[in-house]
Amino acid sequence: MAKSSADTPLMQQHRAIKQKYPDAVLLFRVGDFYETFGEDAIIASRVLGITLTKRNNGAAASSELAGFPHHALDTYLHKLVKAGHRVAVCDQLEDPKTVKGIVKRGVTEMVTPGVATNDKLLEQGSNNFLAAVHFTETDCGVAFLDISTGEFLIAEGNTEYIDNLLQGLKPAEVIFQRQYQKTFKESHGNRFYTYTMESWIFDEAFATESLLKHFQTHTLKGFGVEHLSKGLVAAGAILYYLKETEHPNIQHISSLQRIEQEDFLWMDRFTIRNLELIGTGTEQGHHLLKVMDNTVSPMGARLLRRWMIFPLKNQQKIHERLNTVEYLLLHTEARKQLIQAIKSCGDLERLVSKIPSKKINPREVLQLARGLEQVNNIKDFCLTATDQLLKDAGMAMNPCSDLVERITQSLTDNPPVAANKGEVFRAGIHAELDTLRNIATGGKEYLINIQQREAEKTGISSLKISFNNVFGYYLEVTNSHKNKVPADWIRKQTLANAERYITPELKEYEEKITGAEDKILAIELELYDQLLQSLQPHIAAIQINAQLLAQIDCLTCFAENALQYQYKKPEVHEGHALDLKDSRHPVIERNLPPGENYIANDILLDPASQQIIILTGPNMSGKSAILRQTALITLMAHMGSFVPASSAKIPLTDKIFTRVGASDNLSGGESTFMVEMNETASIINNISTRSLVLLDEIGRGTSTYDGISIAWSIVEYLHASKHAPKTLFATHYHELNELEEKLPRVKNFHVTNKEVGNKIIFLRKLAAGGSTHSFGIHVAKMAGMPPELIQRANEILAQLEEKHVDESATENISKKERLEKNIKEISGPKMQLSIFDAHSQTFDDIRKMLNDIDINRLTPVEALMKLNEIKGLLK
User: Fold this and answer.
1) What family is reported (predicted)?
2) Eight-class DSSP state of 568
3) Cα separation, 278 vs 229, whole angstroms
4) Could you read off the pLDDT of 420-476 as tens digits, one per residue?
């Protein structure tokens, strides 16, 4: 904004503050409004739909202006941040009534997508992470912080691992060194809101010092993260960013946790996307999280999402969760009470994070106390349980009884949503507060008593007490009674037909009642501040309670799902065979039309005898569903959930790889086939003995010959691999069925169908042996292709099949040569009849007649007559 000689002191102050926050929209508090100027005003008017005006300074210079009332801040702030803008909130730091000249102002909060704490900016069931990535010549470090819950996570690894974490945790904002903008884009694309920072911030010594100072410790060994030096640099950068964005009150960030790649079942970002775990790419799409999430608290919903992205790999921990689910399933009444108690707790995690910044309101403080009362009940239940995981949780819970008592005894039963609204504290808490309240509320009564007493004493029956802003409370006497006025009354005003007086008693009471409201507010705010101070030491304990409640919420959710959807306890073992009986797809079965049952299937994958299943079958018959359900059931078991099958023996799995469905990366300059090959190469290069590999239609992005060759060689490679990964390979290349004869651990299966007349009914049942048809033409017909196109496709198919049979019996040539030869020999369409054909005109007439018929309106009798007419033309 150009400086003008006519700039007012206010605009000079605005410019000085704006210079410190050049990349943010500055909301500048002026009286009861937040104003924006210049470029900020243009952005605000566009995003918020508010009026843009011009501010003229009396000179040639003028500036755009747009504003909104201060009480609408929450609504408008949320819109600006959601639109991807950084917002600096500049408030008045002094009371304008007590200041001569310009009021002191300063930025009290900087809100960006990654450091949002306002409820309107947050989704209850999802974390709102700020991520920092520290790039080095070799690996990367990464840190994730949810300032709204206090969760602080760090990890380090190669670019693929970091990308996987970013994909899974979906941070709202990512910060990194400025010089690595190109590297970040190449590795992670344009999926994230980013902010770049100077490289000196990403210094190991600086980061360590910041972390030690924040956690007030001499070492980071207590967190078990001292070996993650690159991750610690990213964590330090996050703390610096919080300081820069005016977030000084972060005492609720009390621990640092590491994410170890070795602790969890690995899924690359393709797998998370292909299996549709937490999203489908469409708003109304159904995904696994949507089906499984029947948690009753926001804390549980957030944790369930984390469990899905990071399934366990430790057999003991998996068994602990499964046993707890089984215990909760058997104790129906206790489970129902537990669910109700957790539901009543509210979002303890986010409530407690508002304490350091003092953004928690009185109503929320009371909710915190009520939540802790429920923690006490849950603790009692857990301690009496025979399940070990629940017992341990009960032991670790701290109901903070003394704090609960203090809150419930201090606050009224229905406190206001803001501390400055009054009526926050109960009577009997503060003697002076009670006295002032009596004065403020009993004032009217007291004045009536004075009026009655003075009227009786003086005999002035028409005496009345009133108030004005000039001299406060007064006694008014009509002229007919003014001779009865006592000598100690002081006359203040003479009217046409009355006189107004004050008395020492009235003046004394006026001073009391006028100051009472202000004093009441001051005392209540001081008491509230003291109450919030008393909450501070309990933050860590309440956070632990919240984490334990979230775990129990997830496990009771699993128990409810098992009961409601007939899921069974899986047997997770250290062997290598995967044996599923009557397995079902958890998402598809929940979204079938009413009355339709999901067709269950048995699946056996055993590296010793049936390592690779080649799955063929009609298009649309459900091959992809069988692949996905195998992976989803394995994943659910590793989360500690029961699974949709009548029985499931699932080997401990370290990696799930999928290559399902076509997806172009045209913006990145890659074709469908290139994406397919990249994803497949990633699988081939990372398999292990405990991997589960799902491949769907590999090679379809290129020519038939190339596709068959690549698919064939992939199967051979996986079969010959020393790791022998369990593999499901769905394909429409029926030629691959021949591999069963050549490779001992390859078995053919197909999805069955039934032909009724000229229709195909998909039975969706798995059966041994390969399929010989793909029914692609049938699917084309279902999609609404023109009848003449379908007819011609059937003619070509019949010719190819006929020649295939003839030549396979007589000639010893390759499939490729045979196919090329047959294609060359396919005759032209039968409709291209010879000019010498005597029936050419007749056929044209018949064709025209058939084309003109509206079959939907044709009665059976008319159809017979039409048929007879056509027969007559052929004679």
Assistant:
1) Belongs to the DNA mismatch repair MutS family.
2) B
3) 31
4) 888 899 999 999 888 888 877 776 677 888 888 888 888 888 888 888 878 788 889
Beta strand pairing status for 62-69 and 33-37?
antiparallel
pLDDT value, residue 439 = 77
Amino acid at 615: L
480 in Cβ contact with 498 (< 8 Å) = no
What does the chain come to in residues? Answer: 875
Sign of CA dihedral 109, 110, 116, 119: positive
Residue pair 628/550 in contact by the 8 Å Cβ criterion: no
Question: Are 9-111 and 570-775 the same fold in CATH?
Answer: no
Which secondary structure element, helix H or strand E, spans residue 9, and what is its range? helix 9-20
DSSP state of 446: H
Instruction: Write down the domain spans for the chain.
Output: 9-111, 129-263, 431-507, 570-775, 787-825, 840-874
**Cβ–Cβ under 8 Å, residues 321 and 388:** no
d(CA 645, CA 672) in angstroms, rounded, equals: 34
Q: In the 8-state DSSP scheme, what is residue 45?
A: H
Average pLDDT over residues 654-674: 64
The CA distance from 684 to 48, in Å, is 50
Burial class (CB in 10 A: 0-12, 13-18, 19+), 512: middle
Q: Give, for 742, the enclosing helix (H) or strand (E).
A: helix 739-742
pLDDT at 703: 60
d(CA 687, CA 271): 14
Compute the distance between CA of residue 701 and CA of residue 708 in angstroms, rounded to an integer: 11
- The tokens of 154 are what? 């760090």
Q: Tell me: the pLDDT tens digits for 5-42?
A: 557 888 899 999 999 999 999 999 998 999 999 999 99
Q: Is the pLDDT of residue 51 over 70?
A: yes
- Cα–Cα–Cα angle for 165, 343, 528, nearest 5°? 90
pLDDT of residue 819: 55
- Give the closest residue to 193 by CA, choosing from 83, 74, 77, 309: 83
At residue 242, the pLDDT reads 94
Instruction: Provide the annotated binding site for ATP.
Output: 617-624
Architecture of domain 9-111 in this structure: 3-Layer(aba) Sandwich (3.40)
The answer to which of 255-264, 730-739, 775-784 has the lowest mean pLDDT is 775-784
Quote the CA–CA distance of 373 and 367 in Å, as a whole number.
10
Tell me which H or E stretch contains 56: strand 53-56
- Which residues are registered as beta bridge partners of 748? 614
| DSSP states of 678-696 | HHHHHHHHH--TTEEEEEE
**Domain 431-507, CATH among 3.40.50.740, 1.20.200.10, 3.50.50.60, 1.10.1420.10:** 1.10.1420.10
Which of 19-43 are b and which e, b meaning 16 or more Cβ less than 10 Å from the residue's Cβ? eebeebbbbbbbeeebbbbbebbeb
Please report, in range form, the residues annotated as the binding site. 617-624
* C-alpha dihedral, 17 to 20 to 24 to 29, nearest 10°: -20
- For residue 185, the Cα-to-chain-centroid distance in whole angstroms is 23
Taken in order 710, 711, 716, 720, the sign of the CA dihedral is positive
Q: Which residue has the tokens 């809100």?
A: 111
**Separation of alpha carbons 52 and 58, rounded Å:** 19
Token pair recorded at residue 376: 């006490």
Q: Which among 246, 257, 255 has a CA at the least distance from the CA of 357?
A: 246
Q: Residue 157, SS3?
A: strand
Where helices occur in 21-125 by DSSP H, the ranges are 39-48, 73-82
CATH value of 129-263 in 3.30.420.110, 3.40.50.970, 3.40.190.10, 3.40.50.720 = 3.30.420.110
CATH 3.40.50.300 holds for 570-775: yes
Region 551-575 average pLDDT: 96
- Token pair 């101070």 is found at 533
